[in-house]
Amino acid sequence: MDSSQQLRDAAEKLALILAQGGMQKATARVMTALLYTEQATMTAADLCEQLTISTGAVSTAIKQLIQNGLIERVPAPGSRRDHFRFVKGAWATLMSQQNAMYAVMRGAAQEGLDVLREESVAAGRLHEMQDFYWYMEREVLPLIEKWRQQYNGA
Fold this sequence. Notes:
3 strands
């Protein structure tokens, strides 16, 4: 098996793991194809051909990945087609976006706590949930910033 096939296989394996974790299958496959490619950029047509999926599936996946800050559209002199590549720092950006979810989860716990008696069983679980997400919210952003400084040599 040649190295390009091994890379495609590794990409497909990761895409399967991401899909099992809740990501749309086509989005996971497009993401991993862009992650594992040896090309600087890929077009939507390149992705359709490599993944043997429809242009609509690729288009939807690209929109979602751009929106999540994982890939970007880049100029390609001499080409009329849009080219896409993984964004440098994409992983830190993705994790930073999770902080919004931490606040949402804390708020959901608070809504329940506002209704419940302080000493109830459910209140105990909701306090734990709220405390966990408060902790994560406080700890993750500095950790991501430390990563960025270390990774970028700043």
